[in-house]
Amino acid sequence: MYQLIDGKAISQEIKAELKEKVESLRQQGIEICMAVIQVGSDAASSVYVNNKEKACAYIGIRSLAYRLPEETTEEELLKLVRELNAREDVNGILVQLPLPRQINEEKILLTIDPSKDVDGFHPMNVGNLSIGRPGFVSCTPAGVIQLLKRSGIEIEGKECVVLGRSNIVGKPMAMLLLRENATVTVCHSRTRNLKEITRRADILIVAVGKPKFIDADYVKEGAVVIDVGIHRNEDHKLCGDVDFESVASHVSAITPVPGGVGPMTIAMLMNNCVESIEKSRTL
Ligand code: NAP
After folding, report:
1. pLDDT (tens digit, 9 = 90+) per residue, 170-184?
2. Mutate which of 137, 139, 189, 272 to test ligand 1's pocket (most atoms within 8 Å of Cβ)?
3. Residues of CATH 3.40.50.10860 domain(s) within the chain?
């Protein structure tokens, strides 16, 4: 029988802890404020932005919402980011991706003050992670580490395989596992003999971006499987990068989709906002 790793419960536990922390900061006269910028009205982005605002409200973080029209220019967005960088009452800045075509995402992300970069995408934070210095860590991989730790799954010394090498999931995931003293292998689209490598994993983290890509053939008996993927299938139901039905019978622990990694991303964003108070003094 496998252990179902409950991301919903663990994310709620983290948010409740943060709520307490924020209350104690408030009693010391410290308020946390996060600015969330959305450009255009992409439906998925609107859902994410609303969920972030709701989480802020629950925890006691003040959120400033900027909903800008689709035709916003790069210069206008840069101006807003620079204004928010300069505001002492704003601790975190989040620009919801994707941005409309006329705006260069990289240019915007590079303009965000690294000490307010609660998404952890700025090269300074990415660099800090890779050399073991403090900084903001990308929320989804940070959430995976919390899922493992809070489910009592040891990471140190384990053979961990990360499937995917994106800048927001795969690469920071590998760095975080290394920081936890795992032995880490990263696979991608040019990897040869993929099944042989994934079958070595004690902990397999899947961020391949392809629905139900991983079946039982890719997984060692008794492994822990973390599914980062999120897709809608033909019936509009959510599914992950892992074929849960095929894999579940021979793993020791697994995350479901929905209710696994997904809820952790927002919880870790909230964690970064709370930590931004300390980061503003050290970065
Ligand atoms: P991505 O940027 O598309 O990266 C996918 C990675 O998988 C790439 O490194 C790619 O290799 C590799 N890949 C693709 N096909 C492969 C194959 N056949 N064999 C081996 N490797 C292959 O995706 P992402 O942004 O990292 O996201 C991954 C998944 O996580 C998506 O389903 C996304 O929706 C989900 N996600 C969820 C959350 C959450 O909060 N739960 C957050 C972020 C992302 P190359 O580098 O060689 O192209």
Report:
1. 999 999 999 999 999
2. 189
3. 29-113
Token pair 């029988």 is found at 1
Class of domain 29-113: alpha beta
The residues annotated as belonging to the active site are 52, 96, 119
> The whole model's pTM is what?
0.97
CATH topology for 139-262 is: Rossmann fold (3.40.50)
**How many other C-beta atoms are found inside a 10 Å radius of the C-beta of residue 116?**
24
Ligand 1 nearest-atom number relative to CA 261: 41
The two three-digit tokens of residue 218, written as one number: 């890719």
- The residue among 185, 144, 129, 192 whose CA lies nearest residue 162 is 185
pLDDT digits (tens, 9 = 90+) for 247-278: 999 999 999 999 999 999 999 999 999 999 87
Nearest CA to ligand 1 atom 34: 230
d(CA 199, CA 191): 14
**CA-nearest residue, atom 36 of ligand 1:** 229
Separation of alpha carbons 26 and 261, rounded Å:
30
- Span(s) in the chain for CATH 3.40.50.720: 139-262
